[in-house]
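User: Please predict the structure of the protein below. I'd like the answer in structure-token form so I can feed it into my own downstream comparison script.

Assistant: Understood. Taking the following sequence of 135 residues as input:
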Amino acid sequence: MKVLIMGCGRVGAYLAASLDSEGHDVTILDIDSASFRKLAPSFKGTALLGDGTDEDSLRKAGIEEMEAFLALTQGDNRNVMAAQIAKHIFNVDRVICRIYDPLREELYRTLGLEAISPTTFFADLLKERLMRGAK
């Protein structure tokens, strides 16, 4: 699968390396070149300096050939904007967007975006573990 990841933080770098090791064609895009130091030394994909909310940067990253786009920066607004551009302008089949604010997660889903809130996900996981040991 051809995948474009916006955001080379811990999650983006880990996911990029994981997909790359499985043989996927991975491009990772970030506005800070220092972020690419988080990539595993074994990463064979493409790391590009650029802004995922900028159409020219997305074109340089090859978005028109991508099967999936993941917006994984620390900024909810940037992630939503980039996800909408990928989905509605470039017609990427699979678009996933990280949203920290759980109140926005459902709103963005109504916009047709696949939004995941790590806040909600982790809180649910903690609650499940807590209740498993409760009497």
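That's the full token string. The chain has a mean pLDDT of 94.
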